[in-house]
Amino acid sequence: MTPSLAQSSWLIPLYPLVGTLLTIPWSPAFIRRTGPRPSGYVNILATFVAFVHSVLALREVWGQLPQYLEIPWLSVAGLELTIPLEFSAMTLGALVLVTGLNLLAQIYAVAYLEMDWGWARFYALMALFEGGLCALVLCDSLFFAYMILEILTLGTYLLVGFWYNQSLVVTGARDAFLTKRVGDLVLLMGVLALYPLAGTWNFKELAQWAQTAQIDPTLATLLGIGLVAGPMSKCAQFPLHLWLDEAMEGALPSTILRNSVVVATGAWVLVKLEPVLALSPTACAFTIAIGAITALGGSLISIAQIDIKRVLSYLSSAYMGLVFVAVGAHQTHAALLLVLVYALAMAALLMGAGSIISNIITQDLTQMGGLWSRRPVTGLSFLAGAAGMVALPPLGGFWALLQLTDGLWSNNQAVLVGIVLTVNWLSAFSLARVFGLIFAGSKQQMTVRAPEPLWLLVLPMTLCAGFTLHLPMVLQALDMLPAWDLLNKDMALLLTWSSVLGAALGSVLYVGRMVKDPTKLVQSRVQNLLAYDFYTPRIYRNTIVLGVATLSRLTDWLDRYLVDGLVNFVGLASLFGGETLKYGNSGRFSFYGLTILSGVVLIGLFMSWHYLPLIMRTFVTF
Amino acid sequence: MHLEYFLLIAAALFCIGIYGLVTSRNVIRVLMSIELMLNAVNLNLMAFSNYLDPANVTGQVFSVFVITIAAAEAAVGLAIVLSIYRNRDTVDMEQFNLLKW
Question: What ipTM describes this predicted complex?
């Protein structure tokens, strides 16, 4: 093991970027004869190299002090921008997660996109995402984190808009871009406002600054809210959550990546900004409120969805909401653990969902059913993911949520504990419902013939499920689990009970099918409210979109008629003046004579104005 | 006799000339009106010469020049009228409005 492996970790984001460039020749415009497959293989190779590199580097830095590397980027008068990179166990661990999940998702895509010709574009964008995520994780500066977030926003736009001949894809990509962009822009305001205060954008120096900083509370609040707004849109938090729902129009392998990792980018930045947020209790309360509302709303909405991908996308929002709650309550360790656990479990769930969709075509849960006997591997992976996500004792979700609730309880935030428990209960119910609707009950027309898919699709899915199941052991071995003795056993019991109750209720209703039509249990108005996502599109359309559209129309009108009109009026007035005044040339000699005479008389009067009284007097005396 | 009377007479004659110049439809009458105006000017010159500068009679010399120039101008004017008449067969001023707007 050469000691330079960790030091050369900055290469890791470059492998996938090289992969991105190498895919370009296989786009249909260039190499027409061989088909697009080599582009995928090249990318998988690049990702594999990145993965191996990050694993080896992680082994090297494990238990060591973090190493830093600074790359100068721009130096102008008064501003030195260097790219600080941090190679610590945490960042390299995150790299392993990112590259590992990418490797799995890319292998998955080989099977999933078998009948698609757009591999070059797809893999190039996946690799761009991977490179961006790796760079974000490594880079230790808010400014460059912002830059990468913006690049990833563009990447989201392109990746969601992969099948751009579908109209819903186009609108979904548009919303994903604009919504994330709004958050990014507010984040930029926060980033720019932070520099004069702290004098640095390095997360580490920001944390040191925040410990002793004395700034105006209102300023701190505004700053905190500005900094939260970016992650808010990235993590699909209320009210900027619609884009994740619409981003489900994209190809499924990219969805795996997006839901498990990309939405976590915001959480990563938020966790790193926690010391700055801690300056203002109001900003922390805001973060908690947003997170709690999203967690409750997202899990409720996910229960009422009939599209399998959308069920999972709202659960993504909900779990990111829990991360927000954790960060707002200053529990960064719990937040990071939750992100790690969530990423693996959600990837397993989405891979299971994709395995279902890939050969029964429909995504409508109401048209599925009875797949357990013939899709056991998918079913088990799905179960593993579901169990890993909610708080079931031996698995990862339990530990992360336990640490969170424990911290909340010891901070006397009982309401938040209640919210976390409720969200856990609702998520367990939602996952049990999805499982029941897909795998239990009788076969329906769409699910009559449904074999397990290609091995390339099953392999990453089972690997992901395996990782989810092994995560607690890995964490145990790495000493990353919270100490059992110090934890609140009552909380553990409560969490377990909430998941068991949720799952049990879901199972009774949807696996056991005890009630004939569970949709009758809730008022249809409430049901519609949740199914249509609190009518968020309508809210957007009637507030922001309406306002901006009206304003644009008004501005356009003003420009077209007032500004243009004024200038055109000058031109028109000269034209009209010329058209009218030409009639002064009457073509009659006598008229010209009269004009000359009038001119002479007027000029004479003007020149003799002073003498007129004199002349008058002369005439009077005479 | 005062200078003013002569000046007033001359001004009146000039105004009559102007009136004729502006209102006449016949080109010949226009030329005649111009002659009237020139004569009014001559009257002015003579009156000033008589009352203000009897020694040098500069004004009388001026008016001699004006009369000669007026004769030449009338000749040229009549020639122009004749050439227009040959082309357009009329001497009506109202018909000569080709160069309007």
Answer: 0.80
Residues in CB range of A222: below 8 A, 6 or more apart:
A193
With 0-12 CB in 10 A as exposed, 13-18 as middle and 19+ as buried, what is A85? Answer: buried
Residue of A nearest to B21 (CA): A590
Pick among B1, B14, B18, B88 to test the A interface (most A CBs inside 10 A): B18
* A595: nearest CA partner in chain B: B22
Q: What is the pLDDT of residues B17-53, one digit of tens each?
A: 999 999 999 999 999 999 999 999 999 999 999 999 8
Residues on chain B touching A582 (C-beta within 8 angstroms) = 101
Q: Which residues of A touch B99 (CB under 8 A)?
A: 585, 587
- 3-state SS class at A348: helix
- What's the confidence (pLDDT) of residue A1? 43
Please give, rounded to a whole number of angstroms, the shortest distance from the CA of B58 to a CA of chain A.
24
- Total CB pairs under 8 A between chain A and B: 36
Q: B34: how many CB neighbours lie within 10 A of its CB?
A: 19
DSSP B54-79: TTT-HHHHHHHHHHHHHHHHHHHHHH
Q: Is A75 within 8 Å of A81 (Cβ atoms)?
A: yes
| Helix (H), strand (E) counts: chain B | 3, 0
| Cα A434 to Cα A286, A399, A429, distances in angstroms | 32, 24, 9
Burial (0-12, 13-18, 19+ Cβ within 10 Å), A206: buried
For chain A, what's the residue count?
Answer: 622
**DSSP H or E stretch at residue A76:** strand A67-76
DSSP string, A503-531: HHHHIIIIIS--SS-GGGGS-HHHHHHHH
pLDDT of residue A622: 60
Q: Which residues of A touch B96 (CB under 8 A)?
A: 587-589
B23 at A interface, C-beta within 8 A: yes
| Local mean pLDDT, 10-residue blocks, chain A (622 residues) | 71 92 88 86 94 91 84 86 88 91 92 89 92 91 92 91 92 93 92 89 89 87 91 91 89 74 83 90 92 94 92 92 92 90 92 91 89 92 92 86 88 87 94 92 88 90 93 83 74 90 91 80 87 92 95 96 95 94 87 90 90 80 66
Distance CA(A168)–CA(A246), nearest Å, equals 8
